[in-house]
Amino acid sequence: MFENRHDPNPAFLNGFQGFCSVFVTAAFAYTGTELTGLAAAETIDPKKEIPRASKQVAWRIGIFYVVNLLLVGLIVPADSPLYSGEGSESRRSPFVIAIQLAGIKVLPSIFNAVILIAVMSVANSCTFGSTRTLQALAANGMFPKVMAYIDKKGRPIPVVILQLLFGLLAFINLAENGGTVFDWLLSLSGLTILFVYGGIALAHIRFRKAWAAHGHTLDELPYKASFGVWGSWVCFIICALALIAQFYVALYPVGGPNLDASTFFQLYLAGPLLIFLYAIWKVYSWFFEHEHSPLFIRSKDIDIYTGMREQQQHISGPGVSAEQRRAAIAEIQEETEKKSVGTYIKDAIRSII
Questions:
Q1: What share of the chain is helix, strand, coil (3-state, %, to 5)?
Q2: SS3 state of residue 45
Q3: 11, 58, 212, 348: least surrounded by Cβ within 10 Å?
Q4: Containing H/E element for 101?
């Protein structure tokens, strides 16, 4: 198992270019962890559930991503055909190849079935995330109004149909040139998630600024990010560096050709596309949606009250007196102090499980 520790290949295959080229794939693999924040709007008690879900995400990334990748790296050699496959040519999971190299005959088929079930779960998550986002955009006038429709059971039918139509693109991978199409789609979605994570980090930074500018303190918040604003700055900087690294790889890809227009757009299509869409939206809002036209909003002018939960309004609402606010903060602190060490241990075990 540990034979690959003495692999003659260098630590980073293909040098610095090879190191930079994996950022998009890594970002694509982590896509979906941000859904905990998106689900907060539909959670009955986000004060309780969101912190728990966030902790579970951290534990699961450590166990199911980092540990598993370490094991695969120890078992599968760096020069395995797995790493040279592209798109539809990589028909087997790296975990399946690791199991085959370990000489276990039955387990690969079982693991393939597990992966298939996991992919169905991912499809469900993608349907939830994309439909809720598109419906919210339509409700705020940033997407065709017809997509804002929700039926009596709370289902956004039009955007679900739209999402399923785009989902049919998956069958393109069965074509002969499916690998090339897959690379284009991977570049588009993988690079986009870097903009998403960077946007989330920037939104948190701006929210904290606006929260303080309106005279509020962090003690009023039922949930605070573990690493605060500094964690968001680190996330934003990492996303920016990853975008720069991918831009470099798009100009000088591993194996060439260098400075090729087709290769550049295949690896960096999402960048100019998002800038183009943002510019189109700003031009449109300048004429038709004036409330969305400013390029920058000062912290004191940011609306932090629209959409605030009723429970939070009793603490931080615009009409709450200073005395009521202090009493609410004292109640929050009292609830936190009541938690024993055993409670924290139970929460940690529950998060791992």
A1: 75, 0, 25
A2: coil
A3: 11
A4: helix 94-101
Residue 187 neighbours by CB distance under 10 Å:
22
Which phi and psi (to 5°) does residue 286 adopt? -60, -35
Cis peptide, bond prior to residue 257, ω within 30 of zero = yes
Amino acid letter, residue 135: Q
- Residue 8 pLDDT grade (very low, low, confident, very high; cuts 50, 70, 90): low
- The residues, any chain, with a CB within 8 Å of residue 98's CB and separated by 6 or more, are 71, 72, 75, 76
Domain ranges of the chain: 10-320
Q: Of 229, 221, 208, 209, which Cα lies nearest the Cα of 316?
A: 221
CA angle 274, 278, 282 (to 5 degrees): 175
- DSSP tally for the chain: helices H, then strands E: 16, 0
- CB-CB contact of 254 with 21 (8 Å): yes
Q: How many angstroms separate the CA atoms of 168 and 186, rounded?
A: 15
pLDDT in tens, 191-212: 888 898 999 999 999 999 999 9
Q: Which two tokens stand for residue 19?
A: 């190191």
Distances in whole angstroms, Cα of residue 136 to Cα of each of 79, 133, 139, 140: 46, 5, 5, 6
pLDDT value, residue 331 = 75
* AA letter at 269: L
Pair of tokens at residue 84:
């040279």
Phi-psi region of 255 (alpha: psi -120 to 50; beta: other; left: phi over 0): left
DSSP state of 172: G
Is cis: bond before 77, omega within 30 of 0? no
Taking each helix axis from N to C end, the angle separating 94-101 and 107-139, rounded to the nearest 10 degrees, works out to: 170
Residue 319: exposure state from Cβ atoms within 10 A (0-12, 13-18, ≥19): exposed
pTM of this prediction?
Answer: 0.80
Residue 235's H or E segment, with its range, is helix 228-251
Phi/psi of residue 56, each to 5°? -65, -40
Residue carrying structure tokens 């695969």: 72
